[in-house]
Write a structure and sequence with these properties.
341 residues; 4-stranded mixed β-sheet; two-stranded antiparallel sheet; 12 helices; 8 strands
């Protein structure tokens, strides 16, 4: 055996259910195992070593190929380790029952950690475990409201306002298009926008989409406030499984502002021009403004998407031509009803 293979190798050793990590040197696998059991005060019988990274069990031959400072996991009989996935499983198990010692353990691991992937895992865990999801008022979670106007006394009212603001901006954009139309068309166009505006007022600009306290079916989050990305306009779901809870902490609240209510059939490229064309070519027909309303302002055509799932290229989707105008029979029935009033 060469001198190089006989020199002590240095490893970083962990044990399941322990917060500690030790540096251990040894010339072979058995020596490292023995020293590790001594460090963690474990009986050596049945113990074994595996790679911390992926759970691969060590053999003597594999041991000699490992570089110094490789991280190892010491397992006792009956224990198993699958690498990073085991970390995730352990964290998820305790996520809803955070204990002070668990947080301290994670903080200690993070302070010692140098691998970027594990740093990210630990920092995200610490960020999430310190969330104050159940808190609702400014008194219960003051840091969440930092930077917000004092008029917002609870989280739900602010998130509702946030959604309303988005819908109002859509209405403002649609209304502004009237100035591009010929004068003889503007009155009819603005009349339709007026009907949409009254409808939006009656439903409080669909602010319920972001309000976790809302009991209706329109809410886009869970009762705890978790939102899931609905995926790009051309997919049925988010392949990356993006999720966020803006009710949890200030950082998540701010990040949620980058999520989009994306129009599947595009607002500026398609819906507004189609509405203007419908007004110009109605020729005695009645524009079905409620259809356009549903495309512009409701979840019938809006998808909540993470910024990475927001595709800004042309969607190449069109309005349903059979729904541009109300059926003639429907229009006749309404006129007859008005005559009998």
């Amino acid at each position: 055996m060469s001198a190089m293979s006989k020199r002590p190798r240095i490893f970083k050793l962990r044990a399941l259910h322990s917060q500690d990590k030790y540096g251990v040197a040894g010339k072979n696998c058995q020596e490292v195992l023995l020293k590790g059991c001594q460090k963690f005060q474990l009986p050596i019988s049945g113990c074994r070593l595996c790679l911390y990274e992926d759970g691969t069990e060590l053999t003597e031959g594999y041991f000699q190929s490992l570089p110094d400072n490789t991280e190892l996991m010491l397992l006792t009989p009956g224990q198993a380790w699958q690498g990073y996935i085991s970390d995730i499983h352990r964290f998820l198990t305790i996520f809803y029952q955070p204990q002070a010692d668990v947080i301290q353990a994670a903080q200690k691991l993070l302070s010692d950690e140098r691998a970027p992937l594990r740093q990210k895992l630990l920092s995200d865990f610490l960020h999430n475990i310190n969330e104050n999801i159940q808190a609702e008022t400014r008194e219960e979670d003051g840091p969440w409201f930092e930077g917000l106007e004092s008029r917002f006394r609870n989280k739900s009212s602010y998130l509702r306002y946030s959604c309303e603001s988005r819908i109002r901006s859509y209405l403002k954009e649609v209304n502004a298009h009237a100035s591009t139309l010929a004068p003889q068309l503007q009155a009819e166009y603005l009349k339709i926008i007026g009907s949409m505006c009254e409808k939006l007022k009656s439903v409080r600009y669909n602010g319920s989409y972001f309000d976790r306290r809302d009991k209706g079916r329109e809410r886009l989050c869970t009762a705890e406030g978790w939102f899931s990305c609905q995926g790009p306009f051309d997919l049925d779901a988010c392949l990356s499984k993006h999720s966020i809870n803006p009710y949890s902490n200030r950082e998540s609240r701010i990040l949620f502002s980058t999520w989009n209510l994306d129009h599947k059939i595009e607002k500026k490229r398609t819906i507004v021009p189609a509405l203007a064309e419908a007004v110009a070519e109605q020729d005695g027909r009645e524009v079905d403004w409620e259809y356009f309303y549903s495309l512009l302002f409701t979840s019938a055509n809006l998808k909540l998407v993470h910024i990475a799932c927001h595709k800004k290229s042309s969607h190449n989707l069109s309005c349903d031509e059979t729904r541009i105008y109300k059926p003639k029979k429907q229009a006749v029935r309404k006129r007859a009803a008005r005559r009998h009033q």
